[in-house]
Amino acid sequence: MKYLFFLATILLWSCKPNTTPSAEKSANTVNTTPAVKTDKQINLTILLDLSDRIDPLKNPAKPGHFERDSALISYLSEYFVSHMKTKGTYMAKGKMRVVFHPNPPDPAISQAATKLSVDLSKMDVKQKKVVYETLNQTVAENVSNIYNTTMRQAAWPGSDIWRFFKNDVKEIAVEPDSSYRNLLVIFTDGYIYHADSKDSDKNRYAYILPELFDKYKLRNDNNWSKKIDDLDLGLISKRSDLDQLEVLVLEVTPSEKYKNDEDIIRKIMDKWFGEMKVRKWKIINSDLFEFTKQKIESFLRE
To answer: Which of 2, 108, 142, 196 is most buried (most C-beta within 10 Å)?
Structure first.
């Protein structure tokens, strides 16, 4: 998918945004720690979920989820470049990467992602200027390659988001240098699952699936929130040291049949991020580009 197509797609999206009460509640109540000042360098990590959520046959939404992802990733790269330019070429030391967990079986996909890794702290002025001039196009081309290859193969490797937080998030997404603002952006439909992570401990799990909602009879139950609290239902928390990390979860897409799945997903994720002491987070449902962009901008300004 070419970059011009992303721009055309963006211009065509013009419907009313989804502003559910739960979205407003999540945005207003979970940010208990002051945000990092924007004068810091940016350390941006983008974690992609290449599950069947992007399958155009299973999820024939228009624009497709791969198109929405692509447009938002392009916007994030533009934000990265714009923010680094405000530092001045000499002082800019921003870092950006696109990651998977685990790596997809096709090495071509991993190679495309490698081209999207940028570390300005290791570059001279001339090299930084090249990044400023080429990064947006590089991102558009390689993200297109990643999604097109995945859809052509229809293998859907998915993403083990739970295990990423358990084992690798701090090493990959958190720069120990306090002059950096650590941003982790996760693309997922909210139904967290990977075949390698089926752990459970009482009413805690390594996944969020509709089967759990049915098992605990949370759907279409006005007391679902209290039930979650009473049962201590949620994701297994294995750490509490992420106070230097900010997390954006994008493209959450609840079941068409059970719309309150979104509220359940939010509550479980809010609880999980809170237990891991994440500095700040926001969970954003799938929406038209302009409205998602506004929510991202609000998060980045805070």
So the answer is: 142
What does DSSP say about strands 41-48 and 118-119: parallel, antiparallel, or unpaired? unpaired
Mean pLDDT over 227-256 rounds to 96
pLDDT score recorded for residue 38? 56
Reported confidence tier of residue 9, pLDDT bands at 50, 70, 90 = very low
Crossing angle of the two packed helices 3-12 and 65-87, in degrees rounded to 10:
100
Residue 27 CA, chain-centre distance (Å), reads: 15
Tokens (6 digits) for 72: 């938002």
**Which candidate, 41, 51, 291, places its Cα nearest to that of 183?**
41
- The sheet with strand 280-285 has its strands ordered as 118-119, 95-99, 41-48, 180-187, 245-252, 280-285
Give the tokens for residue 62: 């228009």
Which tokens sit at 229?
A: 């609290």
Q: Which two tokens stand for residue 11?
A: 């211009």
Burial class (CB in 10 A: 0-12, 13-18, 19+), 2: exposed
What is the tens place of the pLDDT at every residue in 198-227?
A: 999 999 999 999 999 999 999 989 999 999
Assigned token pair, 52: 């069947």
CA distances to 62, 73, 265, 300 from 12, rounded to whole Å, are 10, 17, 29, 25
Scored b (16 or more CB within 10 A) or e, 16-54 reads eeeeeebbeebbeebbeeeebeeebbbbbbbbbbbbbbb
Using the 8-state DSSP alphabet, how is residue 177 labeled? Answer: S
Q: Is the pLDDT of residue 33 over 70?
A: no
Contacts with 50 (C-beta within 8 Å, 6 or more apart), sequence order:
100, 104, 109, 146, 147, 150, 156, 157, 158, 159
pLDDT classification of 5: cutoffs 50, 70, 90: very low
Contact yes or no for 250/300 (Cβ under 8 A): no
